[in-house]
C-alpha cells in the first residue's frame, strides 16, 4: 500500500483514526463533542494550502489503515527560519490491527515531502514513547524547550 493525499471524502475515517489515537493516550476526560467540528474542519481545510493529510487505505478496501496530518503555521522569521513557516504534525495514527507494516512511516514520509515542497524548514510534533523510534528514524530530535499549555475558559 502507498500513502496518498487525503481528500475531504476521507474526513469520516480521519476522525475515526484520530479517536484511535486519542483513546490510546488515555485522556482523562472523554466525550465525542470534538468529532463534528473536527469533521467540518477537515472537509474545509483539506483543500487549503496550509493543511495536508496523507493516508494509507486498508488492504481490504474498508477504510483507512493509517494517517498523518500536518499544518503550516506562519510566525515571524528567526535565525534558521527566515520565512517563519513552521510545520506541525498531529494525528499520526494506525489502526491496531494494521500496525508494524510501515503505514505510518509512509504517511509521515509523504507529509515531510509536502512540507519540504511548501518551503517549511522546521517541523514540530509531540511523540509518545511508542512512536518516538519512528520519528527519530525520520530525523526528529528532542528539543530542550518544555511545552506548556493554558486552557482558557469560554
Q: Could you write a compact summary of the structure shown?
A:
With 154 residues, the protein is an alpha+beta fold. The protein has 4 helices and 5 strands. The chain has a 5-stranded mixed sheet with strand order 1-2-3-4-5.
State the low-pLDDT regions, or none.
Answer: none
Tell me, rounded to a whole number, the average pLDDT. Answer: 92
DSSP strand content: 15-25%
Percent of residues in helices comes to: 25-40%
Note the main sheet: 5 strands, mixed
Q: What is the number of helices? A: 4
What's the total number of strands? 5
Q: Cα-atom Rg, whole angstroms?
A: 16 Å
Strand order of the largest sheet: 1-2-3-4-5
Q: How does the overall form come out from the CA principal axes?
A: globular
* C-alpha termini separation: 43 Å
- The helix/strand class is alpha+beta
Listing every helix as H and every strand as E from the N terminus to the C terminus, the arrangement reads EHHEEEHEH
Lay out the secondary structure:
Layout: E1 4-5, H1 11-24, H2 35-45, E2 51-57, E3 64-74, E4 85-94, H3 103-117, E5 122-124, H4 132-137
Write a structural description.
30% of the residues lie in helices and 21% in strands. The protein is built from four helices and five strands, in the order βααβββαβα. It has helices at 11-24, 35-45, 103-117, 132-137; strands at residues 4-5, 51-57, 64-74, 85-94, 122-124. Strands 1-2-3-4-5 form a five-stranded mixed β-sheet. Strand 4, helix 3 and strand 5 (122-124) form a beta-alpha-beta unit. The chain starts with a strand and ends in a 17-residue tail after the last helix. The relative contact order is 0.17.
Amino acid at each position: 500500500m502507498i500513502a496518498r493525499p487525503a481528500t475531504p471524502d476521507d474526513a469520516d475515517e480521519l476522525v475515526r483514526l484520530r479517536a484511535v489515537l486519542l483513546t490510546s493516550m488515555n485522556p482523562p476526560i472523554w466525550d465525542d463533542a470534538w468529532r463534528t467540528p473536527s469533521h467540518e474542519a477537515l472537509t474545509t481545510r483539506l483543500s487549503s494550502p496550509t493543511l495536508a493529510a496523507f493516508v494509507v487505505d486498508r488492504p481490504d478496501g474498508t477504510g483507512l489503515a493509517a494517517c498523518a496530518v500536518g499544518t503550516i503555521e506562519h510566525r515571524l522569521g528567526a535565525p534558521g527560519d527566515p520565512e517563519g513557516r513552521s510545520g506541525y504534525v498531529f494525528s499520526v495514527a494506525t489502526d491496531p490491527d494494521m500496525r508494524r507494516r510501515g503505514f505510518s512511516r509512509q504517511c509521515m514520509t509523504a507529509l515531510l515531502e509536502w512540507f519540504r515542497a511548501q518551503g517549511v524548514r522546521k517541523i514540530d510534533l509531540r511523540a509518545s514513547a511508542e512512536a518516538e523510534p519512528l520519528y527519530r528514524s525520520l530525523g526528529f530530535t528532542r528539543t530542550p524547550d518544555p511545552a506548556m499549555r493554558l486552557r482558557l475558559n469560554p
